[in-house]
Amino acid sequence: MDRTEFTCVIILVIVGLFNEGVAYSKPKIYPAEPYIVIQEGTDLNISCRGFRPIHFSVMNVSGRNCSPSRTKPSESSGVHTSTFTVPNVTRTDAGWYACAEDGTEIRNDEQIVEHPNETISWIYVYVNSSKPFAVDDQIDGVTIIKPIWSSVVIPCRQTLPKMQIPTLEQAYVVVDPAVAGFRYDPRIGFIKDKVTKSSSTDYSCISPPFEGRVGDEITYTVTITDIIMKPPLIDEDKLRHLIRGRNQTLRCYITDETHDPDEETYYLTWKAPGAIPAERLRRENTIGKEAVLTIVDVRETDSGEYTCTVEGDGLDSASKSVNVKFYDPDEEYINVTDILSSTQTVSATKTALWEVDIDTYPEGNITWLDTEKTEISNSTRYSHDVSGTKHTFQIRNVGIADFGSYTIRINYGNESNEHELELKVRAPPTAKIESAPNRSYKRNETQEFRCRISGYPLPNVTWRYSESAGPRSDNKSVETIFPPTRKGSLENSPTGFLSFLKTSINATGGLTCRSCNEIDCAESTMTILVAGGQPPAEPSAHKDVIWISSICGLIIIIIVVVICMGAKVNRER
What we know:
By secondary structure, the chain is mainly beta. The chain folds into 5 domains: about 5-130, Sandwich (Immunoglobulin-like); about 135-225, Immunoglobulin-like (Sandwich); about 235-325, Immunoglobulins (Immunoglobulin-like), CATH 2.60.40.10; about 335-425, Sandwich (Immunoglobulin-like); about 435-530, Sandwich (Immunoglobulin-like), CATH 2.60.40. The chain is built from 1 helix and 40 strands. The model is unreliable at about 1-25, about 470-475, about 485-490 and about 535-550 (pLDDT under 50).
């Protein structure tokens, strides 16, 4: 039994599944004419014939009251035939009708100017009526919203193909359509390309009486907005290193955040490189939030630019293109690209971060190794995160000990590859004399001392020896400053290298190792003890002391002798 439809878009769904590798082709439409004229009140019958199930499309018209319609499918010897019927047509049934194989999207509304016919068959139906315009009386005053720089249609379609062109009023003033930038097609209406905001106003179409028909007038309000349609989304990570010899599916989509479903009906379409024949392309889900393009039995020549376009009822279209390349499935492949520099210079306590794009076929196994070639596992300090082919490596709270080369090891198929990451940590210097502290040495003994240094930029090193104060008349210590050692080279690791000093020890004192870079300075001091205490006085000074002591002794003897003699004289008296 025929099923009656009351919707504006009639889709005939035939039970069954698409066979693998079966391609779309263009069905034949009957009557095989660009347009037909039928009398109001008669039945409209359109047939389509093809090799797959077929669906019909009726022009979507604002404010339209659709007439009931019926579709009747049949199949014989692999040929599918479907007949679409609208009984008792009225002038509102005038418009574009189309058919295509199931899965082919048909966009069919008043704002369509071009009607693609590669996989879609079209026919325009005029309905001979007593009124000039193929629209309902209640449509008067409908608002048409279009984006700036797009094309706008004032859909004053006529009920016969050879009627006089309607008069056009812009803001209720009669204008010459050509001067105002419009062209006219009786199956579409007045068309203006590349509109600007100055085109936002009221437009009226006025039809004079024609062959006994009464005149009529219809008005539309046009609003030109600067809202720009956002392009669809494509997960490009899933399109890396695709291989030949199998069916490949491409998907593009929109979301409620990017395209408000309450504002528009959206149409998503894929465009493939022109060299691919239509019979190897399958299209699905082109109305809604996703479009699917399947390339059957992919070949090397199918590589190229694929474009997904989203269109709305009132807004302009927007596209997103991707360059897709298809590879030999037997050929292993690797491509490693640094998104951020492979050499990172980071201050101590900060976070080091590398981003690397790693694309392999077959899919690779990624291992991260530290400066000692030991595998790094995720922790509070280390992390390796993956998003598609993007790999992010992080080291938090870095220190000078983290300085060095890290390795990304990539195993794919039977192959292996390594990629180096460099980390330089800016850190203040350190200094530490490694000889045993407070050691006792013999006077004039030659000794070698060593000081462990770290820091970046690589620091220089200065040695200093301060003798303790001795029995000199000025009572001051003696300080010896040795020439600075040369600034560290790449042979000296910033994480730790040794500076050596070879010198003789003459007196007790303090030995200091000092290292400096552009950030700061640091030093380490050790006490040097010389056996036997302080060095003795010089010989000349010793002789002076003996000579003075002798004189003092002689004077004391004379005084004693004088005193004794005086005492004897007194007793004798």
